[in-house]
């Protein structure tokens, strides 16, 4: 009832060491987009698997143990489809979460699978009773009802290093 600003939504987002787990994954987007801009995809730079940058694997890299554990888990069990849930907001976001234009805070940044992601997001948003209710509270000050309670993550706000983009 209080909304995300008043209910302490960020309390569980930070580790004891001060790492924001929502922004702690390796940025694979920039490498992909640079390769696309230089016409290297798919022959010289396959886009179906982008290796984790070496700097990210160093022992002194600012990577939370929780993030390393999730990455190890994802590498052991390749997912075909996954979702992660956050408390506080009544909106479904889908990749990409990071804007392609580095200096933009918001920008529609669809993936090659945008249609599938929008369909999955819509199915979830229309099936979730709290989200589908006409008497639901606003998300921050945004009224996502006009978008069907779904939005491209980067078109809402950019999130470099998100688990969504990393896993995609």
From TrEMBL:
Cofactor(s) the protein requires to work? Zn(2+)
| Organism domain of life | Eukaryota
Q: Where is the Peptidase M14 domain?
A: 1-168
Fetch the Gene3D superfamilies from UniProt. Zn peptidases (3.40.630.10)
Q: Which gene encodes it?
A: Cpxm1
**GO:BP terms for this protein?**
proteolysis
Q: Does the keyword Protease apply?
A: yes
The answer to whether UniProt assigns keyword Plastid to this entry is no
Task: Name a GO molecular-function annotation.
Answer: metallocarboxypeptidase activity
Which family is it part of?
Belongs to the peptidase M14 family.
Record GO cellular component, one term: extracellular space
Question: Which Pfam families would you find in this protein's record?
Answer: Peptidase_M14
For this UniProt record, the keywords arranged alphabetically read as follows: Carboxypeptidase, Hydrolase, Metal-binding, Metalloprotease, Protease, Zinc
Species: Alca torda (Razorbill)
PANTHER family (alphabetical): CARBOXYPEPTIDASE X1-RELATED (PTHR11532:SF43), PROTEASE M14 CARBOXYPEPTIDASE (PTHR11532)
Q: What is the recorded name of this protein? A: CPXM1 carboxypeptidase
Q: Which SUPFAM superfamilies match?
A: Zn-dependent exopeptidases
């Amino acid at each position: 009832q209080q909304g995300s600003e008043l209910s302490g939504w960020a309390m569980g987002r930070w580790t004891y060491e001060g790492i924001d787990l929502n922004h702690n994954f390796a940025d694979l987007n920039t490498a992909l987009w640079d390769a696309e801009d230089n016409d290297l995809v798919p022959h010289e730079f396959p886009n179906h698997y982008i290796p984790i940058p070496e700097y990210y694997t160093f022992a002194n890299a600012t990577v939370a143990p929780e993030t390393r554990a999730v990455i190890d888990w994802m590498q052991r069990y390749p997912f075909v489809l996954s979702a992660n849930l956050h408390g506080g907001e009544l909106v479904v976001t889908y990749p990409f979460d990071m804007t392609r234009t580095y200096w933009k805070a918001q920008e529609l940044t669809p993936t090659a699978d945008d249609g599938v992601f929008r369909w999955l997001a819509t199915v979830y948003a229309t099936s979730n009773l709290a989200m589908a209710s006409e008497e639901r509270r606003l998300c921050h000050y945004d009224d996502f009802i006009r978008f069907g309670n779904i939005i491209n993550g980067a078109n809402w706000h950019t999130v470099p290093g998100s688990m969504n983009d990393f896993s995609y």
